[in-house]
Design a protein that fits this description.
Elements (H helix, E strand, L loop, with lengths): L8 E6 L1 H4 L13 H10 L6 E4 L7 H15 L3 E5 L2 H4 L6 H15 L5 E6 L6 H24 L2 E4 L4 H4 L13 H14 L20 H25 L11 E6 L3
Parallel strand pairs: 1-2, 1-3, 3-4, 4-5
Antiparallel strand pairs: 2-6
Helix pairs in contact: 2-8, 3-5, 5-6
Length: about 260
């Protein structure tokens, strides 16, 4: 392990997972694994610069069109690209098209940086995940191929039982909570060849059984507050990221 590795700049590209939902700060903004990783990298490199172009709700075509060219132009040492999951979780999806667009993004970003990191995205264990497994596994197999062809690092979060545990997820069941993001930070940190601070994949203690009434109450709240609005956006062609700018659109010195 090369613990003396340093990076002087980092650009994050993607959707809500990389934007940081739902690792909420007291002021209502989101932090997330990419911000946490930037903070740790900045502590090793004076003058470290960071940009996060990710925007919630973005499909892979939008990521390619809106984020990859600006990211490539920044010429950062490190670039992370995570996308495509919003596509495969939709009722209808052309997985081959998603893979083609992801390849286009990698072909644009890989030559622009010293280290490109891709990810097999985490999934919350449960019946919803089971429904989309064939699509997800096709996408993840292609990500492995891209990593091998372009010399990119692939972080396998999907295989982690710990990160897939419902206790690592926000009540919206779509985004990681603060602990989930913290574990992803450590996973990427170690994939970069840096000295581990903990076992990011350590099993959680046995879950406390939840009674029938509590489960039904939770399900009803989830449907009312999260599932209903999500379905509404799908039916009307809207996205939670419509009109939203990236939180760190320029590659500037990191300030935590």
């Amino acid at each position: 392990m090369q613990t003396n590795i340093t990076y002087s700049s980092f650009v994050a590209v993607g959707d809500s997972f990389t934007e940081g939902m739902s690792d909420a700060l007291p002021d209502g903004t989101y932090r997330g694994w990419a911000d946490l990783l930037a903070g740790r990298l900045a502590a090793r490199a004076p003058g470290f610069r960071y940009a996060n172009l990710a925007v919630r709700g973005k499909l892979i075509g939008q990521i390619v069109e809106e984020q990859t060219a600006p990211a490539a132009a920044m010429g950062a040492d490190l670039v992370t690209l995570v996308g495509g999951l919003n596509d495969v979780l939709r009722p209808k999806c052309d997985v081959d098209r998603v893979c083609g667009l992801l390849e286009e993004a990698v072909e644009r970003l890989a030559p622009s940086c010293e280290r490109l990191v891709l990810m097999r995205s985490p999934g919350r264990r449960g019946p919803v995940l089971e429904r989309f497994l064939p699509r997800m596994e096709r996408l993840f197999a292609f990500i492995d191929e891209l990593g091998a062809r372009h010399g990119a690092t692939v972080v396998d979060l999907y295989a982690s039982e710990a990160v897939g545990d419902p206790r690592m997820w926000h009540e919206d069941r779509l985004h990681l909570n603060a602990e989930g993001h913290r574990r992803v930070t450590e996973a990427v940190w170690q994939a970069l060849g840096l000295e581990p601070e903990e076992d990011w994949n350590a099993p959680l203690p046995p879950a406390v059984p939840v009674g029938w009434l509590a489960r039904r109450t939770s399900d009803a709240r989830f449907a009312r507050q999260h599932l209903g609005p999500w379905i509404g956006r799908r039916l009307t062609g809207r996205s939670s990221g419509d009109g939203r700018a990236p939180k760190r659109a320029e590659l500037l010195p990191y300030q935590g």
